[in-house]
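Researcher: Next entry in the queue.
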Amino acid sequence: MSELVLRPAIAELPYSASSDQVLDVLFPWFVVFAIVAIVSAAGLIRFGLVAPVLQRRRELEADLASAPPREQIETLSEQKARLGDQLDAVLDDNIVLREDAVVLRQGVALAQDVQRALVASSNEALLLVGPDASVQQVSSPMAALLKIRVQDAPTQPAAELVKVFDASKDKPFEYPLKRVVEDAIAQASSIPKLHDVVLVDQSGNEHRVMLSVQAMQDRHNAVCGALVRVEGSDVGAGRSSERTRGKGGGMAGLPGRDMFDTRVAELMSIAKSQTAEHCLALVAFDNMAEVYQAHGYWAVEEMLWQLAQLIKDEFGSAVELYHANIMHFAVVQAFDSPEIVQIRAERLRKLVEAHEFRWNKKTYRATISVALSALNQTTDSMTRLVNDCDQELREARALGGNRVSLQLTDEVEVMARSIDERLVSWLAMDADETRLQMQSFELAGEGEDKPWIVTQIRVEMEDGFWADPGAFLTSAARVGLLPKIDLWLVGRVLGAMQASPALATSHGPVFVPLHIQSLADEGFVDTLKDQVLDSGVDTQRLIFGLDDFDCATHASSAAEFVKAMREAGFGFALTGARVASASQNITALKPQIVALHPTIYHDDNQSRAAATLGYMSALGEALDFLPVVLEPVDASTSTSLAEAGVKRVARSALGVGPLY
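Model: Structure for this entry, 660 residues:
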């Protein structure tokens, strides 16, 4: 029988000994082992590594000492020569590096001097800031605005010179913006950040301005400072107190927010005491940001001024017009109902849509949205009234803008929805004899070119006449019926093409307009493609069109739709194209056809119209699209269009059949 023999150190422990007792016994052995290992390693390093090196060094020194003096001198000379060559090489490198450093410093200094010179010579209010947020240079307009001398600005902290407060707040001076420059530098973004601010100059005067701050980067994307720009018609026109700010001289020469608030409060009191009804209208541009990016701040300022004049022209000289904030005009119509003001607002919307804005020899287009709200005895809060109207305006712009929106009471909204439902029901979309009709006309070509076919929707009235479906389509949009109407039109077109196979040889492609709202309907695009494929009609014979403005306001939806149509073999057309917005849409969507907006060729200034048409024709040749006119025009206009390079124009008479 074998017997387990334990080492004495462990055998002395009881069987139930704890781990602490085991460690107490083993620890001295661990210490001894560590000491032995350290001593062994030190001996190995000393005698295995260091000793041989020292021994070889002693041998070399002994050889040198025992060598004849001549050999010693030669050896030392060789060493000196090698060291001298190495030193010369180092000195040469140092000289080259110093020369490069001098050139680099000169280049940096020159670049900084150029920056300062550009800022100093600018006629804009500019401030050049270094990476430490200290001022490097100011322009003369900025110095005049800040009430300082140009030579006193450098090296001062930008926050000490540019004291700004958040103008979007009711009490701006409770919201100082102390780190706008530092934050721009820290974020390292070269995209300008805009701030609507009240600027206080060194004399204590206040200025309502737009502050733009952007970081400046070198070619390695390292931040080397920031550029501060101040813009606004109030630049240089300081005001002395908070009480007078906004009481006159707004951005478009109009009363500001203070007087607007006072007037609304007064009308609220009148409404309650006299049981009267008033109307508040907020008016805003749909594409102000795009105009700012394309043409700059002063183009927006000019656009606002021209809009103010258009409002006065439409509403009359007695209109109560306020520049409520940097984005909105406010029109207050005392003792007028929203329904009456809505008619004027709609005329204003069309007037702006057809208006050509001009600034600094540049031409651009714009549209507005208008939100209306009743001010009556039930109005209990001016803040809620303005906020609700502003929310209505936002929703109108989210739907594509270029519309008038009336904020309704619950009872009126129910009534309006009932009217929409009755109008849509009257169309009888699901009946065999629907009141919707498809009308077509030819798009004439040049010479032997085949004419194309253009289709559109019409509504057959009780007396048998075909009318523009505008009001019906507006109601259809509100109840979500536009996708169904678009698919109905496509179905009618496909049926007519199947019934008239000769059209394939006698005519070119068929143009079918669609609504941008239909694209938001899930499954619309797939249903559209399936509808065409099931019909057996060649996809290359169909061209689907979207409105230019709708494509600009729904860029992503339009891009996805065009991609899907192009992959399926369909053509794409941009309709209602205006010069200001069409260039961007043409570049992004690459349409085969661009239908010009009537305001381009129905221009009283014939030379301007000819120049615009020539530009669109030249653009068409460069970007491979065909400019066309989809409405019938007289002979004189047709000749002018042909001379400008617009070869396809609608014929003078509409067809009455399903297809021309």
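Model: The longest helix spans residues 69-121.
Researcher: Noted, moving on.
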